[in-house]
Structures are given as C-alpha cells and as structure tokens.
Batch of 3 targets.
Target 1
Amino acid sequence: MKPAVAGKNFFASDPILILQGSVPVPDIDFLFEILYTVYNYKTQTNKTAEMKIIRKTLGEEIYRSLLDELMSGALPGGSRLCEEKICKQLGVSRTPLREALIRLLREGILEKRSSGGCIVRKMSPDSLAELFEARGMLECLALREYFDRIDISGMKLLKKALLDAKRKGSREDTLRADERMHELITEACKNSCLAEEIRGLQLRCRPYRIHRCFKAEDVRAAVAERLRIIDAILAGDSGKAEEGMKEHFQCGIKHYRDKLKKGN
C-alpha cells in the first residue's frame, strides 16, 4: 500500500466505508507522520523560510543523541536502526524516538527502507565537505550579488543577540543567531531560484551544524567568527564580508571532515 494514496482515500471517505474495509487504512508510520506534522505546525518554516531551533524536548534530546552516534561513527553508513533496541538503550518510548527519526529522515540523514525501518545514509568525509562547499559557494554569491539588499536593522539586532549569547555562554542562542544570520542573507536574494537552492542546502546541513554547536564549538569563538561577517556588512564592506563568510565555511568543512575521519 502506498501511504500517500491510502491517506488521501482515508481522509476523504465516509467513516462507514472505512469500518466496512472498503477504504484502505494508512499504515501507522504514515499516521504518525501526519500527527507529527500537525503538532509541529507552528514551528515549521513560513514563507520566508526562517528556521528556528525547536525547544529542547525529549524528541530533541533523542535527535541530538542519535546525531552524536552518527558523527562518532558508532552508527556508520548503511546501519539499520532498530526502534526496539534504541528505545531500550535510551530508556524512552517509541513516540519521541519516532519524532527524532522522522526529523532525521526529512533532513536526509536517514533513508527509509522499502521493507520497513530506516538505515543511515552513507556520507563520506569528502561528500559532506562537498555539501558544505556547495552551500558556501551559493551563499557567498548571494552575499556578493545582493549585498545592498541585506536588512541592516536586522543585522544590528542580530549583533546584539550574538553578544548576549556570548555573555550567557548559550549554545542554543548562538545556533539560533547563526541561522538568522544566514537567513538574512538569503532573504536579500532577489533571485527566488537561488534562495530556494540555498534553503535546501541549509536544511541538509542543519543537523551537522547542530552537532558542531553543541558538541565541539566554543561559544566565544563561534560568536567572534560570525561577528566578523556581521561587522563587515554593517561597515558596508562586501569584500570583507564575503571573505569572512568563506572562512566561516572553511572552518566548518575542516571540522566535519576531521570528525568523520576519526569516526571511521
């Protein structure tokens, strides 16, 4: 049964026909995905695709725990994830675990098997480096071509938020500010096709960014790295801003390449 077809018939049909078995009922994975989508409706991206970090729930903790396992090499590419085994290891129920798994599936970290269950998508250090390199090239292009369209007032507020994050030593606030910085640059794109491609790459990169922020990155160093870009934008220096952005991505690429090589 194809979940999408079953789901369409299911929600459009008379309840009596469903009880009689005339209409196929979607499988539990499809129903759970619908419920999860509705539950997180308010946190999904709006028409400007501003990405906001979700408050730390049990599902978020499981998500980060699985990311740590993936980045350390404990769950190498091709590994099959057994829900029952993970639930026992982490001492959690299937509901928050599935919340984390659906998120990882959506972000391309996991792949769904035709026979059921999930496997870890194979990602070599070079492949991950190329992913961030492609994103960096497009964001630098957007920064250079649409520099005069960047929201300066937004950048001023962002600088304040970064300094507050540094003062508090908050990793979550640092990550949130980082995502907002990249989004402000993407929002400046007059070319909607370019903006769409950048946002797609941002989504694919996001789980690795979360791992780096919470497991490796020093808050003070992270803030300083981003302030170099923001200060250049506020000073009207597009060349220096682009140089800072390139350095920002190069630091990330080096981190992920080294991390995956150690894990493997």
Note: The chain has two domains: 3-120, 125-263.
Target 2
Amino acid sequence: MLNVQRLILLRELDSRGSLAAVARAHEISPAAVSQQLALLEREVGIPLTERVGRRTLLTPMGKKLARRADQVVGILESAEADVDAALSDVHGTVRLASFGSFAVSYFAEILHRMKASYPQVTVEFALQEPTAAISSLVGRRIDVAITDEFSGRPQPVETELNSVHLFRDRIVAYSPWPVDSLQDLADVPWVLEPAGSTAAEWALSTCRRAGFEPRVSYESSDLRFHHDLVRAGMAAAFLPDMVFDNGLTPIERPAHAIEWSADNSPELYRDVHALTRRGAQLKPATKALVEHTMRVTAG
C-alpha cells in the first residue's frame, strides 16, 4: 500500500508549485520533501517528478497520482467527521481565512461566539484575499474560506467545494469632489485594490463599461485607506457598505457619492460566501464555525 503522507506531499507539490513552499508548509527541509518523494517513486516504480530548469514539476503520472491523493484525503476527512460526530463534545481545530474588511467587521464576534459555545474548539485565522483563500482551502491548509464575487463577474465553480451565501454587500462609488457626469471621472485620480486582483479587474471593467478609463494613482488592499483618501479629497474609490456598517468602529461616508447609471453598468455589489470542502464541512467544528458565521453576518 502506498504511503499516505508521501501522497500528501505529492499533492502539496502539485498545489504549491515548489519544494520550498511544500517544505515551509510542513516545517521540514526541501531535501526531506525531495527524499520522501523519491521514496514514493520507488514504491510506484514510475517517475513522478522531473526537473525543468531549476524547478521540480510533476510528470503526467505524478499529476494523476496527486489527484488520487486528493480523493484519499477527502475520504480520510469524511472518516474523521464520522468519528467527531460520534463524540459528545465538539472539539478540535478549525481554520478560517477571509479578506480584510470581513475580518474587521465580523471575525471578533464570530470568535467570541465560538469560544462561548464550543470552548474545546480552537479557531485559527489567516488574512487572505479570496483567490489565495480558495487555493488554501483546496490545498487543505484551511477549513473555511470567506470569499466575494463581484456583480457581473461570476467565479468558476469548484466542484469539490460547498458554498453558503452569507449576504450581498452593496458597493458605492465616491468622488473626492463633485462631478457632473461619469465621464468627468476620467480626470479624477482613483485608488483601487492591487493590480491583477479580482476587485481591481472588476473596478476597471465597471469604469470602462461606463465609458471612461480610470486614472489609477494609488493601490492598496486596505479599504479603510481607500476611504481615507476619498475623505481627504485625494482620490475616487469604490467602497462596499461593509466598510461603514461594521458595527464596531463605524466611519462616516464620503460626501460625494456617484450616481452610477444602470444603462452603463449593472447594480454594483459583491456577494460574500463561506466555502468549505465537501466532506470536511461535515466535521462538527467546521459546521459550528459556518453556522456562527451565518448568524453573525445575518445580524
């Protein structure tokens, strides 16, 4: 029988893309990862990795076996869920990742409720943008990923994941000073999320559909920074309601909200989801975290 831990390392190499990244995740040396994969190759009797330049990549058989390893880990997670469900106390460690504005608005209350309801559950948190959070979830480095999906830009469906819709977060465009039309916004400096991010691509396409090319002068993933630039009269920005209605440290809305014509663009919003892996969502600790997240975000 093939060694499960070595299969997991193979799957991790497929997911993370380098021996160094796998080594960091498992807190071992790259040489140890390479040695374990070499032992797996001997077990199989077929090359599973190959050197391409300075990188170690999977062969076609290596990729096929990595997909099988995903199935094996999924079965093991389902088995763990069955065992956990048979125990009287909800316990264990559950790992959640979310983007910044969600964390600021909701995580403290989610954590407080989990501690009160399930004191034997340890909740771990990582700040990750949605794309990275989905990668971590698929790679089994976290258990729950909070993601967003922007209006007019549906995300690909991951068949191995379950999705729970939490709420719709309205987005409003704000200008640093009054403007007469959407086309006037071409002459206004803008602050967007980092180039290449889903949020930045959505913002650019939304402006282009409205008939102008935004002049992007500032980039940051911190939406509070966006808000502060608008309030200071320095930049225009798209700001979701979550920035203002977080229930913890409410902040004032900028004065110059922009009427976004429905003829030029659809309604501006993002849908926020909680994602789990199929099988893993059956674990009591994971189920409890998702349920508390739903209650907290429902108000």
Note: The chain has three domains: 4-83, 85-168+271-298, 169-266.
Target 3
Amino acid sequence: MRKWKNWIVIASVFTVFTAGCAPSTGGNANTGEKTNKQGKAETKSITVMARAGIYYNALSAIAPDFQKETGIKVNVQEVGRDGYLQKVSTQLLGQDKGMDVVLMLNNYMGQFGAGGQLEPLDKYIEQSGSDMNRFLPASAESVKYQDKSFALPFDVSTMFLIYRKDLIPKPPTTWEEYNKLAAQFTKSKNPDSPTEFGIAFQGKHGETQPKDFYQYFWSMGGQFFDANMNPTLSSKEGVQALSFLVDAYRKDKVMPADASTYEFPEVLSAFQNEKAAMIINWNAAYPQLADKEKSPKV
C-alpha cells in the first residue's frame, strides 16, 4: 500500500521528488512484481506527474527503459503549464495517494519539506550506493532543507539572450545597448524595422515572471537580503531594475502590449514568428529554434 509521505520530487533547478520505489513486503525487487491476496504476481507501477512540453516528452521517452531495467511500469501524467504548480501543491497538501513522483521547482523544498509532505531521500540515496556528489554542487544544495535532501536535481535551467544575427551582428553588452536596440527594432519607434517589437518578456503572473526579473535585478547589483537577512527588493537596485522593465513595457512600448500574458511558449513564439528581434528565454528554447520545421523563419 502506498504511503502518502513517500515522495520523490524531481528540481530550475527543476527537481524530482520521488517515492514509492522501494520494494514493499511481498514484492520482488528484481522483477518489479508484487503478489496480491491470491498469491498472483502483479506488475508494480508508479505515477509520475510532469508538466506538459519538454519535461513530459523526456520522461515519457525514458519510461520504457526504466521499466525494462526495474520491472516497474511508469505512468507519466501530463499536466498543462497553467496552474501546474497550484495543482501539484494542492495534491501534496491534500496527501493525494495517486502521485508517486512529481516535478517541482527547487524553491518549494523548504515549504513542503517543513510541512512533512515530502520524505527526506538521504537514506534511499545511501542504500542505492550513490550520493549527491554526482550533481553540480549548487543544484545538490538547492534541494536541501535543514541539511536533508528532499529531491533529486533533474534539470538546471538558465536564461540566454537570443537575437537575430541578420539584424544584430553585435549583441548588446549593457542594458543601455539592449534598450537602444529594442527601440531600433520596434515599428512604433522605427517604421523601417523588420520586426514589430525589439524584445519580449515573460510577464504572466506565476513562477517564471520573477525569474525573468531576477536577471535585471542581479545584474544591476541587487541582492535579496542584506548581511542581517533583511529583504532588499526595495533597494535602489531593485527600484532601478523594476523601473527599467516597466518603462520598456508602458512608456517605451518596445515589447508586445500583451506581454503580461507571456510565458516561455509565448516569448519563444514571438521570436520564431519574427515579432521580436531579440528575446531572453530559457535554454530549453534552443532545440526548437534549431529545428527548421518548428522554426522555419529562424
């Protein structure tokens, strides 16, 4: 019988919380089988919740190999981007028994680790003969809460400046240059611009909006806390970063008017369809931009 606290979470880091993989009483660890009340062998299975898109596709692709190696069938459940974290959070808080493995951002480790929704994985990692040294130090540290590992790093995402080389032979190296190019390739500023807008932004309320903001905030000298752990988002650097974005959106209008509804897919689409001359987006965009069928105009 599944125990609701036995989770593995996968981690933007994205992490994997996992659980229920240890063989239960009456099971066969080599074949992934367990016996029912009639003594007949049944194939064990686990349910994995993954966000639609590259994560779902990747896990679905490797699920057959996992079953072949362990005998455990993997049911990958696809959940849309909108409301994904809310749905996962609801199921964790509700102690849902239908979820064994779930992908979640590493910044939720403390919340669910402290709340008891996740079980520390340290003993399972030790039993497997492995350790967290196999991961990048920063990613391994990001899934810890009170020195306990509550997840396994799954994907380390970062953002890149992606630009049209035919339009921008030399990419900007400062925010001033970035802003100037954004205006140059915005039709309302320059009627001869081949693109409607210079840039785009992941402005939709949710998990990615603050991450897009952080790069402006950090690069302008901002930090989340001071030496005494007082929050410093309202520092001069924080105000400068936010003002830069707000001005680009409201005053200069160098990004689409509906950027407040944009996430990863919309920003990617704006670049693919020549709506924006340059974008800042996750590294996951590269395979799609390199695919001539998916991005014929790039």
Note: The chain has two domains: 8-155, 159-290.
